[in-house]
Amino acid sequence: MATQIDPAERLLNLLIALVNTHGRMTKEQVRTSVAGYADAPSDEAFERMFERDKDTLRELGIPLVTVTDAGHGDDFGYRVDLDAYALPAIDLTSAELGVLTLAAQTWQDRTMRGDTARALTKLRAVGQAPGADELVTGLAPRVRSGGTVFAPLLDAAQARQVVRITYRAANTGEVRQRRVEPWQLIARRGGWVLIGWDQDRAAPRSFRLSRIEGSVRTLGEPGAFPAPAPEQVERAMAAWRDGPSRIATLALLPERAEATRVRAVEAPPDARDWASDPVAGPLVAGRDVVHVVYRSEWELAEELVGYGDAVLVLDPPEVRDHVLALLTQAVALAPEEQGERRG
Fold first, then answer.
1. I want to staple 62 with a disulfide (CB 3.0 to 4.6 A). Which of 57, 99, 122, 299 is the partner?
2. Residues near 111 by beta carbon (within 8 Å), at least 6 away in sequence
3. pLDDT tens digit string along 2-27?
4. What is the pLDDT of residue 130?
């Protein structure tokens, strides 16, 4: 016995047929040529099925029109009004396409990179913006991939399903399991952050995805908790805004680390002359010394470590220590990961 076609697939088949028909399609043509309608066990069942699908298309805003035969006024047919259904021509300025390019470059995660690249290619083909790439060169912020935990956390947040994660604390380095009601995934200062309710601490918390170890496990059924109130989300996000602002001094290779370079601020009045320092002088030779504002040592370190040797942290020592610790961890993990790939 042939497998019955899903109603949603049947509806899509009908839309495709009515869009591509020459002139019109009668009910009989729909029943015999559109996949899914042959499943109707009787004429009455087909009538109900077809009328329901027509109503659904119109509710979706698709301009379905009825066409009568010139010689037989009672012979009805149907088609989609292509003039009303077609989208208007896209006419983007260089600035508008530049903003879209900047937004696409912000997302570095593999789950969306291909889709955004294809979309931009199509927009460039119809838009009059030959210099759009030049408008955003060096301005696109780096948002690192959320890794393998991004997709399951996004699904859990949409399904309102509790998750269990293994999390490494930023300040202490302690690794422990946490049960979290995931609320939102947000991009903050170069990485992805999970905002949610920590069941173990009975309080809203934020978790940087780069500090989640292993896989994400779902607990219980979907719909296990209600959507958070706006004030709850605000409290969870407060940690990303609170705290005193400080200034770090970095030495950047020319034309490297552009996303960090564009955040540079004026040197403080008591800034040190690193070029004349007997120890640091040789290190900064050929590099640009810049100053950037930060709030958290480990957060800035996680941003800078992705640039490798393009960035040297001159001050403060705490940020430099965090960078060195991250690099040490990466070196320690490298042989193990290479062994796994060989196996």
1. 57
2. 150, 151
3. 567 888 888 989 999 998 888 889 99
4. 45
The CA distance from 339 to 318, in Å, is: 33
The single-letter code of the amino acid at 164 is R
The closest of 98, 24, 32 to 67, measured between CA atoms, is: 24
Per-residue pLDDT tens over the stretch 256-292:
887 788 888 998 888 888 888 888 888 889 999 999 9
pLDDT of residue 131 exceeding 50: no
342 vs 107, more confident? 107
Distance CA 164, CA 300 (A): 27
φ and ψ at 224, to 5 degrees?
-75, -15
Tell me how far apart the alpha carbons of residues 291 and 125 are, in angstroms, rounded to a whole number. Answer: 40
Entry pTM: 0.46
Non-local CB neighbours of 335 within 8 Å, separated by 6+ positions: none
- H-run or E-run covering 80: strand 76-80
- pLDDT computed for residue 182 by the predictor: 94
DSSP string over 112-136: HHHHHHHHHHHHHHHS--TTHHHHH
Bridge partners (DSSP) of residue 195 are 184, 206
Q: ∠207-208-212 over CA atoms, to 5°?
A: 85
Task: Supply the DSSP symbol for 147.
Answer: G
CA-atom Rg of the chain in angstroms = 29
Angstrom distances, CA of residue 36 to CA of 10, 65, 265: 5, 21, 64
CA dist 221 to 158, 218, 256, Å?
Answer: 12, 8, 47
Residue pair 178/194 in contact (Cβ under 8 Å)? The answer is no
